[in-house]
What does this fold into?
Amino acid sequence: MNPFVARSLLLLSVTAIVCSTPALARAQYQPEHPKQQGMIDRAMGYLNQNASADMYAAGGAALAGYTALKVTGDPEHPKVKTGIQAAQSIIRKAVSGSTETHIVYDTGVACLLLSAVSPEAYRSQLEAARDWFVRVQKNHGGHGYLDASRSTGDTSQVQYVMLATWSMDKAGIRTPVTSTEASIRYLLATQDPSGSWGYQGVVSNSNSLVAQMGVSRSLGTAGICSLLLACDELKLFGNRSKDEDGIPKAFERIDNIVRSKNDPKPTIKREQVQEALDRAFNYQDRAGPQAQEWYYYWRYGQERYESLREIVKGKQDKSPAWYNQGVEEFARTQSPDGSWKNGTASTAHIDTCFAVLFLIRSTQKAIGKLDEGVAFGGYELPKDVSSIRMVGDKIVSNKDTSVESLLSLMEDEKNYVGEGMLANNMALSREPAERTQQVARLSRLLDSQNAVARRLSARLLGRSEDLSVVPDLIYALSDNDPFVPKLAEESLRLLSRRLDTVHIREANPKDQQRSAAISYWKAWYLGIKPDFVFLDR
It folds into this structure.
């Protein structure tokens, strides 16, 4: 045989084997994957044993507290409590007139933590920080260093201000529309022609973009994140909560009333920012690798960018290629002590926090955690349960009757209740007496022997808008079923309007997460009903 032909056939054979070998396919990771969980556990071990000792000490403590809260869901975690103290100190320092180099960064992180722990408990501090952000916003709309010699905006600092105000906005603490719009105009005026952003913004005085200084991928990511956060604050990508979050209609109406009474409507439209978004998306799609300097800072920004871009696309990917690549790289670069660092120990504390926040997909969870509901598809329940049949894990029916049939079916322990019976849009009666009776029956069903009946009851009680069911839902947090505790806390979040308070994120919660959730929600309920006595069951 001709040697060239033989060599070609051999090459084709090897190529076919490589391309068809499943073992060589890239792994598909999600935050709950054992590989990430092992890395996160080691990282938290490092953070629990080490405090930030560099120039970011106060902000580092707040960041570590935020990271610990996102991982454990426990507001009583020592790192969280230390972080809260640091966050309060940072905000006091900021509003008193500090011009320290990192004060804008630190205040942004402080707001992230306090918003996540309890926006009600720390409302005064958060509102003071918000007002401070508005006061120190520069005339061109950017944020940056506060010493008198620097009038420019700083892209990275703008990002942390927008991240803070976006988080506060989700917690019901609104930044004036005029301030958010000024930030958007600044970002539009300082975008580099490439679609990226630079370090200290050079403001264009015309419709033409001007070249920026210090353009890099990390700053480009910071710039587009800032723009996406600001646009989402103004609901330029739509109001997700109405259709996707399962929030009761009354809550949505109240939310809109609060903004309409205190703030003018936005004047910027989506079409005015679309060209800048497209340029930025194109830049990110073709950008080369990030330099090692500020690497983990960029990775955390990347997770934020990709999660926010999913809002624009209207579609979430649970295991995207960029995330899988990052997981594998982090597995190779994690130090034996559990930390990550850019080559020096001085920023290991900060870098480790950024790496963990990337691994847990913290921004995606903040955006869409109410969408998930339960682990089964087909939440829509047919009105007629007398002739239901299962198709996969969904219920289908052609007849029409009332929710009373479902309650009767679940109350009889002899009846079969399928796992598809998990309602999303089922409505309780509007007639007060009948509704009260239905709520009472659902509360009793939390003690049912049928786990699926307990899941359905835990989910529907969140739509009752009846605070008398809170103790029953708190009791359900200790249910030994994998899904009931998560559903019960979602209902508590809806009833309390504390949508960002999450202790139980996944099925099969750990005892520590259950305990933290029970303690938190008992304390909240006693805050509104101080005479209530919780009895052991």
About this structure: The chain has two domains: 34-372, 389-528.
